[in-house]
Write a structure and sequence with these properties.
With 274 residues, the protein is mainly alpha-helical. It contains 14 helices and no strands. Helix 1 crosses helix 13, helix 4 runs parallel beside helix 7 and helix 7 packs antiparallel against helix 10. The longest helix is centred in the first third of the chain and has 35 residues. It is globular and about 75 Å long. It starts with a helix and ends with a helix.
């Protein structure tokens, strides 16, 4: 009887903590979505109004008054470009680190990942200004690769290290070059890790604000700048800000939901392997 009561108390405590955790995580998203459907008067009202008449006026200002489609196109080009080139460079680098135990290179990439992005901002600005690459996709893609490339290398290194070398050696005995064994054997076996690294890198690039704010101008501004356009010293259009935030987060949420199984599997395997 005592054991049953003890387990019951544990289950109640666990359920209570789980509800609090979910509420803390979900509440900001619910509040953001509600605010996107409110008028400015309803948003700043105190006490907060939970019963209101929904309006799509905020989304109209985001999609019509702002050049949202241009920002969307720029974000897609920059995010896909940064992830693609980071994969082309990061996968061979991660394989080399895992197979040949290149500890120094691994630590160098880790340092680059841990340094705050703002420390690279001024050098990038000077270099791109002198090369006349400001307000170009090249500048944004290269700057976003500072985020994506180390993430891909550090996500994939444990995967490649956990794949038995005997599989590659058997393929090479059969006449398959090492480059082809990497492409035909190692990469397919590491697909969950690749999906994980790609998804996380895309989300980080998609949400990046700092590089886009400094290195882009009118032609190549990305989606996070759309939020900034509704901020001013006089007044903050909270409804438009929330609507822009919802529109920006939607693709990232959809992408995460689609590849959720692979992301969880990839992160779990990456933490255990190696």
């Amino acid at each position: 009887m005592v054991t049953v009561l003890h387990r019951l108390k544990q289950n109640i405590a666990f359920g209570f903590c789980l509800v609090i955790l979910v509420a803390v995580i979900v509440f900001p998203f619910v509040w953001m979505l509600e605010s996107a459907l409110k008028t400015q008067v309803d948003i700043i009202a105190w006490p907060p109004r939970f019963i209101f008449t929904p309006t799509l006026q905020n989304f109209k200002r985001v999609f019509v008054e702002q050049n949202f489609l241009l920002y969307l196109k720029n974000s897609v080009i920059v995010a896909f470009g940064a992830v693609l080139f980071s994969l082309l460079l990061g996968l061979p680098a991660a394989y080399s680190i895992a197979r040949f135990h290149q500890t120094k290179l691994s630590m160098l990439i880790l340092v680059a990942r841990l340094l705050p992005g703002i420390s690279f901002l001024m050098p990038w600005y000077i270099v791109f200004s002198r090369l006349r690459l400001m307000d170009s996709y090249t500048a944004l893609i290269l700057s976003h690769m500072l985020i994506a490339l180390p993430l891909i290398v550090w996500t994939m290194s444990p995967y490649f290290g956990a794949i038995p070398r005997e599989l590659e050696e058997a393929a090479m005995v059969d006449g398959l070059p090492q480059q082809k064994s990497f492409l035909l054997i190692v990469l397919p076996l590491s697909m969950p890790g690749i999906v994980t690294a790609t998804t996380l890198s895309f989300i980080f690039s998609w949400n990046n604000f700092m590089f886009s704010q400094v290195l882009s101008q009118q032609r190549t501004r990305t989606l996070p700048i759309a939020v900034y356009n509704f901020l001013s010293y006089v007044e903050v259009d909270w409804g438009a800000v929330m609507a822009a935030a919802v529109a920006i987060m939607f693709p990232a949420i959809v992408l995460t939901m689609i590849f959720q199984k692979y992301v969880v599997q990839g992160l779990t395997a990456g933490a255990v392997k190696g």
